[in-house]
Design a protein that fits this description.
heterodimer, A: 207 residues, mainly alpha, disordered C terminus, B: 99 residues
Amino acid sequence: MAAGDADNLQPTAVETDPAQWVQRHGDLLYRYALARLGNAEDAHDAVQEALLGALRNASTFDGRSSESTWLVGILRHKVYAQLRRRSRDAAERAELEAELSQRGDTFTSEGYWTHTQLEWRVNMGDPTEREEFLRALDHAISDLPPMMRRVVYLYDIDGLDAGAVSEILGISRGNLWVLAHRARARLRTLLDERLTHPQNDTGDRNE
Amino acid sequence: MTRLAKALWYVLTLRCEEADRVRAVENAGGETAWSERVGERLHSSLCKSCRIARRKLDAITDALHSNRDRFGSGGDAVLSDAAKDAMAERLRVEQQKNS
């Protein structure tokens, strides 16, 4: 290779077969969208849009990431665009207001715990215990109210910064922290129920 | 001086609910004032339930941030065969248009 050739290297398009995308990655893409949008119809539309977008840009797939990672990257933008559109919807605004106004029954009106906090500790070094905890947490996330769940997905799981999450969800920074705080408190309560009263669980952890 | 007195009053009178809010916001990476942080720590040093609650929040946040791939996948849902066929057909039509 001649000197300077390395600087001229462009990402090379890699063969990708659109006819196989739905069979190979359809379910993964659908689950990704469904988790964030919480609605099968919207998730379906987002996946369809993403696949069409990928088809138009198939020449940009350079094989540096896997085909599924590349498709998820395209889908992510479609999902965020849907969330942006939704944030302007009156019903979504009402849902947000409802979640922000919920006080819950964790504390007395004087601001003290209504119940003594129960201890649970997780040894993440133990594969069985770790798996049990992660599964319980996964279930708990899906039980969160919609706006709190979106904050957890976008901020904690997708790793977006606070400014980006506020912009996508159409909420102030202050409200983002309120939702992040309440989501964590709710997850803790849900995990209390699952980890300190395992007999109340659905049993799928024993699979 | 009034500001300092207010901050000290806040620290000394902080209750469990406010302590929990401060630690959850801090835990999520949000901004908190020094008086909130000091108040939360002082309160937690005296309140067993708040210490336990803090440990649990730390465990939840660590698990979320260390296992992002695990939680991003959204459960066991699958596309129906009809939906897959419709999507594949739409792709095929678009592909033909473009070729």
